[in-house]
Hints:
Layout: H1 34-59, H2 67-96, H3 102-116, H4 120-143, H5 153-168, H6 172-180, H7 186-218, H8 224-235, H9 240-243, H10 245-250, H11 264-271
Helix pairs in contact: 1-2, 1-3, 1-4, 1-7, 2-5, 2-6, 3-7, 4-5, 4-6, 4-7, 5-11
GO molecular function, one term: hydrolase activity
Keywords: Hydrolase
Protein name: Metal-dependent hydrolase
Amino acid sequence: MPKAKTPADLTITPRDRRFGRDTAQRRWWLNGDPIATAFYNALSVTFPKGEGFFIDSVRRFREGTPPRLQAEIAAFTKQEVMHTREHVAFNRHVTGEGYDISSLEADVQEQIDLAKSRPEIASLAATMCLEHFTAILAHELLANPKHLAGADPEAGRLWRWHALEEIEHKGVAYDTWLHATRDWSRWQRWKVKSIVMLHTTYRFVRGRKRGMLELLRQDGLTGPRVAWRLFWYAFGNPGMGRKILGQWLAFFMPGFHPWNHDDRTLIGKAESDYADAVLPDTAAA
């Protein structure tokens, strides 16, 4: 079995926070920009169903894992459950502004059903890939304040809280995958994870693009110019997609592990805002 590279002194700490329950939120809550708002709203719609899928996929393989990894899976589960709860609340703000997100939710469910129709190890592989996606998005979100500049305060806090916990638990699905495939050759493991990442990336990008354009259509914004504005937002300025490309490619390198890129300093910068919400006895040692 390959040796996992999660830092020995890492602690995964669920922080029980609630955001924006009694706070008004603008329809275009991110800097008054419909493009930026659609970008994050479409991502948020994926989280309630998607994170439930992540939890199920990882927990199926927790039996027989080392005690530390079992504790990390338990903490990962608690973090993801709270992320689900908060994005359900956030999505109520979205629908409260008149958006119909049913087609976006149906797309997510279709992808989950497709994954569940395959062997359980395939669901774990897809989870590992999507967790890498969320971790590199989270890194860029915290590393570059420009992404959330001008956000309504509670929405900005939600996304930063979610991002720091995604960084914190970014190795859990990968380490679970390493344990589950410990009898595979390095070549077989690399081949499978690379194929799954390519398929997952295609479906993720296609689905989110479709969702963003649908939300913009509901704002009365359609046509090639709108599509170009969305592309420029994602890959030009501020360019989230462009800026995560290097870390996405790193996934395919021999010897890759999410913690080869130790970005815990970003957690330290952000987590002081949530110190009073740490659950007292759920950290993974």
